[in-house]
Amino acid sequence: MQSRTPASRTGRPRSAAADAAILAATREGLVELGWSGLTLSDVAARAGVAKTTLYRRWSGKHELVVDAVAELFDELVLPDRGSLAADIEGVVLQFAAILNRPEAKCGLMGVVAESTRDDALRERVRTSIVERQKRLVLAGRARAQERGELPPEADPEESARTVDLIFDMAAGAVVHRTLVSGKPADEEWARGFTHILLLGLTTPAPNLTPPGKTVS
Amino acid sequence: MQSRTPASRTGRPRSAAADAAILAATREGLVELGWSGLTLSDVAARAGVAKTTLYRRWSGKHELVVDAVAELFDELVLPDRGSLAADIEGVVLQFAAILNRPEAKCGLMGVVAESTRDDALRERVRTSIVERQKRLVLAGRARAQERGELPPEADPEESARTVDLIFDMAAGAVVHRTLVSGKPADEEWARGFTHILLLGLTTPAPNLTPPGKTVS
DNA sequence: GCTATTACGCTACGACTCGTAGCGAAAGCT
DNA sequence: AGCTTTCGCTACGAGTCGTAGCGTAATAGC
């Protein structure tokens, strides 16, 4: 939503049912028409709502789709599969499953495309979708540390960098696999991905910040 | 181009200069207007070409942008920096530099968004842009094998899978870093990424296809 | 219950883009 | 020359955009 109701005003309140109907209609429209085919008139018709109501709540297609897609990714959970490797695989597969839904793919990519020219929109995408799911990485690492699979973090700053890197690698790889390569991110693929990611994490970093380049 | 001239027909040939002007105008339009703001009328005006000429050569915005963006990625080369790690870093940084240009970002993402609902378009993206650049991974691996940094590949089938995986991880991570996270894929980031990727590659895979899950 | 205030549905609007058709002129090939 | 194809131009109906205006519906406060 863009203009959150300030606590409680006087007058007729906004229909929460309409919000749900609109977001659902948006996803439905994305499935059938795709990003550039989606029109707000169509969404309004599907939701059984006047077009003007849409514009009263969202400033345009971009913002609306962000909210519609964000709901999809809230389904993600961190399953306890017993080992860090299995946990990573589990999340990757869940993410792949969501990204396999047409409304998620084209909605997300369309919004990302527009956000390259609109800083406010990119920030909205980041906070509404991406940053929310970073919880999975944090929870997974914490659990792995309890198990003793990962050492407790020393430098908090580098720790944050590592979380960001993991997230970029995981989310990016799944997106690229399913959307660009057009092949399924199935169990076998997730296993290969996890194998590479995990080795890099468990092996102590030689020098990420220090001197020059003794990477060998 | 969509309708390649069959060798040489009789009649006035298509102006190659117009092609170049149109593609350049498309990129220019992407910078200023973004994906959804880009109109073919505008491109025609910029290129000094009639709108009808555009439609004679491309079937629509999607196809046109694919060609316009594909040219950008042909700038990629594999520098010989002396080690596999340095080579990977070099390519990653080059890729990041290209993806940092606004016309590349929004053009690529816009096309990918549409390609989620258009198999033909996705295939076009794959062959025109993605598959072309897979040469870098192949060349880099070959060079690393000459150096003795990587073992010669045994199973050709699994080898192909690994190349795909590397490509998905590298391209996906850079895209996600620059477009979604909105942070620069600079040298430090590339170093961290290469560190993780490389350890996973040089360590012999325990079981990618076999039994169940003896990972950890 | 009455009133103030806000949300809602509906209609209509000008501005714009889309993709195509039709025409005469230009530019090559043989 | 003559033939063939491209090109630039104009015009067109269809469709979308985001907004404005109006009457009605649904709450909160009194």
From TrEMBL, chains A, B:
<dbReference type="InterPro" id="IPR001647">
    <property type="entry name" value="HTH_TetR"/>
</dbReference>
<dbReference type="InterPro" id="IPR009057">
    <property type="entry name" value="Homeodomain-like_sf"/>
</dbReference>
<feature type="DNA-binding region" description="H-T-H motif">
    <location>
        <begin position="39"/>
        <end position="58"/>
    </location>
</feature>
<keyword id="KW-0804">Transcription</keyword>
<dbReference type="Pfam" id="PF00440">
    <property type="entry name" value="TetR_N"/>
</dbReference>
<dbReference type="GO" id="GO:0003700">
    <property type="term" value="F:DNA-binding transcription factor activity"/>
</dbReference>
<dbReference type="Pfam" id="PF16859">
    <property type="entry name" value="TetR_C_11"/>
</dbReference>
<dbReference type="InterPro" id="IPR036271">
    <property type="entry name" value="Tet_transcr_reg_TetR-rel_C_sf"/>
</dbReference>
<dbReference type="InterPro" id="IPR011075">
    <property type="entry name" value="TetR_C"/>
</dbReference>
<feature type="domain" description="HTH tetR-type">
    <location>
        <begin position="16"/>
        <end position="76"/>
    </location>
</feature>
<dbReference type="InterPro" id="IPR050109">
    <property type="entry name" value="HTH-type_TetR-like_transc_reg"/>
</dbReference>
<dbReference type="GO" id="GO:0000976">
    <property type="term" value="F:transcription cis-regulatory region binding"/>
</dbReference>
<keyword id="KW-0805">Transcription regulation</keyword>
<keyword id="KW-0238">DNA-binding</keyword>
<protein>
    <submittedName>
        <fullName>TetR/AcrR family transcriptional regulator</fullName>
    </submittedName>
</protein>
